[in-house]
Every structure is written in C-alpha cells, then in structure tokens.
C-alpha cells in the first residue's frame, strides 16, 4: 500500500491523525497528536524505525514530553486505511503488543510502544552476552574449578547453564 493522501481517523481514540513527513525516508507517518499519541505505519514502514540505530527523530520530536489521552490498548481496533479489524501481534519485545492489519499491512502502535521497541531491541542484542558472562563470573568461575576458562569463558560448559537461564527469561 502506498501512503494515504487524506487524513486518517485514529483507530484508538477517534481523533483526526496528523501526517508527519519524514524527509530522510521520504514517507508520511500518521500520528494521533490531538488524541492518544498513537502512530500508524503503512505496510513495512515500521521496519525503517524499529531499531535504535535508525533515525526516528521526526516522529520522536513530535511526541516527546507531550501528554496524550489514555486509551484501552486491549480493544479491537479497526484499520483506518482499509476498515478491517486489526489483530494483536507481539513485537518481539516483552510486554509490547501492536495492532496489525492482515489486509493492507498497516501497524498501529500505542503511545510509548515505539520507544519500547527501539530500546528493547538494543538491550536484547548488545547486552545479552555481558549479562551471561557476568552471572557466570560472579557465581561459578572460582568455586568449581573453572579457572582454565577465564580467558575464553564461552568455552566453559558451566557458562551454558547461565546462558540457558538468561534465554529462558529474556526470549520468552
Ligand atoms: Zn488516537
Ligand atoms: Zn488495513
């Protein structure tokens, strides 16, 4: 689907959404600036903003430090682009569920979810090895004769114990 031309009605609060043009990426994003702060991304547009290294300043500066209307994020939303009921979908980050339109591919994020997705991805990928190594070094390396693995702790079979533990917590 290409960018919609006319202003859309927010699927969460019913207010008219504002089009924000992102020059760098050449696309319009619909944001509910006068209502709940929700953001609608057309098909695949979210992929351009969902990682911390990607520039999302155009969007973030619009919503930063603003207070938005509270909405029920569990309610079923109707896609404002094609009128289809949207489905809830995990975003790969603990506790974040977004609304997805199976027909046109639009994704609706409640206020705060974009920041959570961007920060969550960063934490998961860049810090997970450090968390595991620290747990291992704090708890096991001296008491069970693992000193030989100090230089290459990834080789320790006992480190695997912490890797499994962390994975079962963080990658649910
Ligand atoms: Zn809204
Ligand atoms: Zn749709």
Question: Would you kindly provide a written description of the structure presented here, covering whatever features stand out?
Answer:
The protein folds into two domains: 18-117, no CATH class; 127-170, no CATH class. The chain is 27% helix and 14% strand. It is built from three helices and six strands; from the N terminus they run E-E-E-H-E-E-E-H-H. The chain has helices at residues 57-63, 113-139, 159-170; strands spanning 18-22, 27-31, 39-41, 87-90, 97-100, 107-109. It has a six-stranded antiparallel beta sheet, with no helix packed on it. The longest helix is centred in the last third of the chain and has 27 residues, at 113-139. The radius of gyration is 21 Å and the shape is elongated. The relative contact order is 0.13. The chain binds zinc ion (2 copies). One zinc ion binds next to loops.
């Amino acid at each position: 689907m290409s960018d919609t031309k006319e202003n859309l009605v927010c699927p969460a609060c019913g207010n008219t959404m504002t089009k924000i043009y992102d020059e760098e990426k050449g696309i319009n994003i619909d944001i509910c600036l006068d209502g709940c702060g929700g953001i609608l991304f057309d098909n695949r547009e979210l992929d351009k903003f969902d990682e911390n290294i990607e520039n999302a300043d155009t969007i973030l500066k619009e919503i930063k430090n603003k207070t938005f209307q509270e909405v029920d994020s569990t309610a079923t939303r109707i896609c404002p682009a094609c009128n289809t009921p949207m489905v809830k979908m995990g975003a790969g980050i603990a506790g974040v569920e977004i609304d997805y339109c199976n027909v046109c591919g639009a994704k609706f994020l409640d206020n705060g979810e974009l920041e959570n997705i961007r920060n969550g991805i960063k934490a998961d990928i860049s810090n997970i090895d450090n968390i595991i190594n620290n747990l291992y070094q704090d708890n096991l390396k001296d008491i069970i004769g693992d000193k030989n693995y100090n230089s290459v702790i990834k080789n320790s079979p006992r480190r695997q114990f912490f890797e499994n533990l962390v994975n079962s917590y963080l990658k649910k």
